[in-house]
Every structure is written in C-alpha cells, then in structure tokens.
C-alpha cells in the first residue's frame, strides 16, 4: 500500500518513523519549507524532512497549496492514502481527493474537543485532566471529519506542553500504524461523524496570550507557564526587562497587589496574583539562558515590592 505523508515537526516525525518501521511504502513526503533558526537565522530543515531524506524518501516542500500550479506536480504521484500530522498548511480539495482512500489526520485531542491549531496548549490552559489522539478522515472543514479511532491520554498534574506532546506523539504513532494495517487488510475504514454541538476550538497561541496577566488566578497562571513550555515560553516583564517564566508553583492565600513581589530568596520569587501567588523557580532574561530563580537573584537582585508586568515586546 502506497502511503504518502504530510507533516513537519517532531510530533509528525515520530509517526513517519513508525509507519516506515511497519514496512509501509512511502513514495512521497510533504513538509513545510525550511525555516530560519538560531541567532544566525540560518535556513534549517524540520524533523520530518531530516528523517525523510535520511531514509532516501522523495520530499516536496510547497510554500502553499492554494493554486493548481502548486499542487498539480504533487498529485501526479499515485497514492493509496495520505497521512497528515501537524503539517501546518491547509489541505485543499484537490489533495483530499488525490489518494485512493483519501486523507487521514493524526490530531492531538479527543475530537470534537479542541479542533484547531493548538489542541495541546488549549487542553493545558483549560485545566483538562484528559486529552488524547484522534485518527480522523479529513474533509474540507477544520478537523471536522469523521473519527476512525480515539485513544485517551491522561494529563498529569505537572504536565507541560512538551511532555504531553511527546506522549501524544508516541500514542499517535502506534495508532496510525494500526489504522493503516486495518485499511491494508480490509480495504476500508469505519468512521463515526463528530458531534458539532460539543465541539471546542483550539485557537493558535498569539503574542498576547504569551504574556502572563498577573490579575489572573495563580492556578491559571501555573497552567499557562506549563502550556507555553517549551515554546514560546510564558512572558512577563520586570523593571523594563523582558523575561520568560519556565517553572513555577501556585500558592494559595492572600498576597497583595497582583504582580507585586512578596518574597525573593533561594527557594524562588513569590509574585502576588489576582488570587493566590505564583512562586517562580526557573526563568530567563531576553537573550540569556534558562536558570533557577536562585541563580537569577545572584546576578539580578529583586526587591520585595518590585512589580512584574506585561512587556511591549
């Protein structure tokens, strides 16, 4: 069975590696164009491209797929099915109709909850205790296609977006191989339509959402720190300096004006919130490295009463 693959980051590369390990033929891999990374802003390939080229697979990197000249060369390759995982481009009808059995998506939520671009981050921000992987048949809507199988995954108490993404990637990799094996064996897949009435939307994390609002509840801010780790990081400011908060713990009680430092010592920097307080234990100055709060205080003393707040950066 000829399995095409479309994906870009590590989450997708985990699935592609599993598909290859299962022995499926992958005649074509679609992935996004190389992006600038690092201080030198050098163009670098994504994890899917690195894996595909390392296995000698054919790779295409169209910048978009809106017009026929962009997708016509791609659909010339015969496929039985196209697996899509965190590709990052909208898949047009011409691509959906291209493979013999259509397109199958690996989505990092229990659909119809958290359709959209940031299901992992939104599940953490909302305080969900469970998420999972849905393997769905793609249609022209945004993650609206019928679901072939769902695999629940619990969200641990101190889960970050990075740790949860790694778990979901492994579950998704196993699930897609099982679905492809069934398709190969049966020549068809049974899928159940989603219930639109219970759907929620996982909007992309914008710049404003990256900034901590100290008027919020400490537990909500703790979830935000974990949801934004490892990227883009939870942002705030202190004395005009932009900071990223990487690790923190919520504290209950009354602590004063939101954003005010109530304690700063080797155990952490305690900042009052709208309700409760957040004890920062790991942070980073703009352009610097991640460090413990104790190490940060050794070089940048923070006085009780200093105010954390949003930056304009």
What is the helix content?
A: 10-25%
Number of domains: 2
CATH fold call of the largest domain: Rossmann fold
The unreliable regions are: none
Overall CATH class of the largest domain: Alpha Beta
Element order: H for helix, E for strand: EHEEEHEHEHEEHEEHEHEEEEEEHE
Strand content: 25-35%
- Main sheet: strand order: 5-2-1-6-7-9-10
> Total strand count, please?
18
**Main sheet characteristics:** 7 strands, mixed
Shape: elongated
Going by CATH, the architecture of the largest domain would be 3-Layer(aba) Sandwich
Q: What is the assigned CATH homologous superfamily of the largest domain?
A: Formyl transferase, N-terminal domain
- Class by alpha and beta content: alpha/beta
Short description:
With 313 residues, this protein is an alpha/beta fold.
What secondary-structure arrangement, pairings included, does this model have?
Blueprint: E1 3-7, H1 10-21, E2 29-30, E3 35-37, E4 42-44, H2 47-54, E5 59-60, H3 68-71, E6 81-85, H4 93-96, E7 103-107, E8 115-116, H5 119-125, E9 130-137, E10 147-154, H6 161-186, E11 201-202, H7 218-227, E12 234-238, E13 241-251, E14 261-265, E15 268-272, E16 277-285, E17 291-292, H8 293-299, E18 308-309
Helix pairs in contact: 1-2, 1-6, 5-7
